[in-house]
Design brief:
The complex is a heterodimer of chains A (276) and B (308). Helices cover 83% and strands 0% of the residues of chain A. With 276 residues, chain A is mainly α. Chain B is α/β, with parallel strands linked by helices and 308 residues long. Chain B has nine helices and 14 strands. Chain B is elongated. Classes of the chains: A mainly alpha (276), B alpha/beta (308). At the A-B interface, helix 1 and helix 5 of A face strand 6 and helix 2 of B.
């Protein structure tokens, strides 16, 4: 019961503090910009008499680019909005009157986690859905394997959310944000090293990327999502910046799920045992 | 030794060390159910850490503690406990009604019970006219009042009030006193942590002085209780030999003007003192027992630097 009370409060807090509405307004602006660009692109396709195959591939590329921007926004939103919720309440003492109620501490943390998960889910579904709706309306194209791509993008944010919560039980707000973002930065860089390593046939460079993904599997989930969503031709021909020779395997997806669960368990355990 | 079921609070050798620094050295305390118990001590004496350990917010390094007969940290027991933290922080985007409902839900109270209880509490703390305002627009005193209402939501058997009069005007302080009295009359136990010694003296049945993380003294505050007393004596023909004989009743004998000041263990020794002086040939004009005030005792224990 305590879990759902805290999830509801977390969700209401985001709405009451206008955080939720601001994120949606920013998302709306993003979709308008994306749609405007795509609209002119579509007009020029017709004007230049572009072949249907090339037109389709460029449209797929636009979808992937839009989703990449959504992914980046979702990652930043996750870290920025959640890094203060726990460590901020611990340092301000807000948690004291809450943590003395007859609800186990792990339930308080899990409730907050569910609250953020709910918001992230809504944000990602609306934004990914919005990008696909816009491209479908303007150029008749949507992402391939949309459901699995969306699930992987969602999972990436949830991994980062769980890691933020785990860090927040040890560190202050700012340190938590810097650490999580830094760890994601490592994974991001590792992903590109892996990609270049695959193109230049350097197995050791690929291994560096894989190790970075083991340390933080968030970026690997995006690369798997991009692989699922973009056109088979773009994947095979490597004509998109998101094409890769080194596609993260399903084992990496399962590893990310395990990583997420472990981070959440560490957060709950540490929060239950620490002084407040 | 009282039975643990008769005690609201029972601790034995409770100790807390933060990063090598001892915050609470050895807290051994028994508070019977139904008592209003004051916790006094200078800054940094370990009062707040002790309260946090009793509430399960801070984990003891060693020692044992029980509240309401259950080990500290027992989740179910918390449904019978109320707590007003020293610096009550809250979700300031809520209205007082919403805040009380949230805390009530965390106590496991039903919607029906909360519909009945919340208006009663808002009325009790004088916030009914402000029930729809956001807490971020509240003054410090109003926030303290809503914190107090929050601590009483579940009609607790044990209430921890950490500096409850902080930020309150005289009317608010009177309100806190009345609430504490009403809780005692209801049979609840109150642990009051306050720097306002006058408030403590008026409201508490008993106090503990804590210094360097240890209880150095507990003191009953009923008027008829035997306790340390200062006796002021105005007398003539008191020789040095007679004056030194007074050390049988007092460790501290000093002259202040034409008076002798003695610190004695109780008022009961006054007749013996008078008999001794008269039989030693002194002319006794005036003997006045003065109970050592809480403030004097506090200063004695804390030192004039207030523990800084």
């Amino acid at each position: 019961m305590g879990v759902w009370i805290m999830a509801g409060v977390t969700f209401r807090e985001a709405a009451r503090k206008k955080m939720l509405w601001m994120a949606l307004a920013a998302g709306g602006a993003f979709l308008i910009l994306f749609g405007t660009g795509l609209h002119f692109q579509a007009k020029d396709f017709a004007a230049h008499g572009m072949s249907p195959v090339l037109r389709r591939e460029i449209s797929f590329g636009m979808v992937t680019m839009g989703l990449y921007a959504v992914d980046l926004l979702a990652v930043l939103m996750t870290i920025l909005t959640s890094s203060d919720t726990l460590s901020g309440e611990i340092s301000s003492g807000t948690i004291q009157a809450i943590a003395t109620k007859p609800v186990p501490r792990w339930q308080l943390l899990l409730g907050k986690w569910f609250g953020f998960c709910g918001m992230l889910t809504a944000y990602i579904v609306i934004m990914v859905g919005g990008v696909n709706a816009v491209t479908y309306a303007l150029v008749g194209v949507t992402a391939r394997h949309l459901a699995s791509g969306l699930s992987l993008m969602w999972m990436e944010s949830v991994v980062l959310l769980s890691v933020t919560f785990a860090f927040a039980t040890y560190f202050s707000t700012l340190t938590t944000g810097v650490l999580t973002l830094g760890l994601h930065g490592l994974a991001f860089l590792g992903g590109w090293i892996e990609q270049f390593g695959a193109i230049t046939q350097s197995p050791r460079a690929v291994n560096v990327g894989v190790i970075a993904s083991v340390l933080m599997p968030s970026e690997a989930l995006w690369r798997r999502a991009a692989f699922e969503m973009q056109s088979p031709l773009a994947n095979a021909m490597r004509i998109s910046p998101f094409s890769t020779l080194s596609v993260p395997s399903m084992a990496m997806v399962f590893y990310a799920a395990l990583y997420l669960a472990i981070a959440l368990v560490i957060a709950m355990h540490r929060f239950s045992r620490r002084d407040l | 030794m009282s039975r643990s079921s008769d005690l609201a609070i029972c601790t034995g050798g409770l100790r807390k060390i933060f990063s090598g620094k001892v915050a609470v050295r050895n807290l051994t305390l028994e508070v019977p159910r139904g008592e209003v118990f004051g916790f006094l001590g200078p800054n940094g004496a370990g009062k707040s850490t002790s309260v946090k350990m009793l509430l399960g917010l801070v984990f003891p390094t060693s020692g044992e503690a029980q509240i309401l007969g259950c080990p500290v940290g027992d989740v179910k027991t918390r449904s019978k406990v109320g707590f007003l933290p020293e610096h009550f922080r809250f979700y300031d985007w809520l209205t007082p009604t919403e805040l009380l409902k949230l805390h009530g839900r965390l106590y496991g109270m039903s919607h029906a019970k909360l519909r009945e209880r919340v208006p009663v509490l808002l009325d009790l703390v004088g916030l009914t006219p402000h029930r729809e305002k956001r807490l971020r627009d509240f003054s410090k005193g109003m926030l303290q009042r809503i914190g107090l209402a929050q601590a009483l939501l579940n009609e607790p058997d044990l209430i921890f009030l950490d500096e409850p009069t902080s930020g309150l005007d005289p009317v608010g302080r009177r309100l806190v006193r009345d609430i504490i009295k009403a809780q005692r009359d209801r049979g609840a136990t109150v642990l009051l942590n306050s720097h306002l010694l006058g408030e403590v003296e008026i409201t508490c049945d008993r106090v503990a002085f804590i210094k360097d993380g240890e209880v150095v003294e507990t003191r009953q505050l009923d008027d008829d209780v035997e306790e340390q007393t200062t006796v002021s004596i105005r007398a003539a023909n008191v020789t040095a030999e007679v004056a030194s004989g007074l050390s049988r009743w007092s460790r501290s004998v000093r002259a202040e003007g034409d008076r002798l000041m003695l610190s004695v263990s109780s008022r009961g020794v006054v007749p013996e003192l008078v008999r001794y002086l008269v039989s030693s040939g002194a002319d006794v004009y005036e003997v006045t027992p003065q109970r050592l005030s809480l403030e004097e005792r506090f200063l004695e224990i804390a030192g004039t630097d207030g523990g800084l």
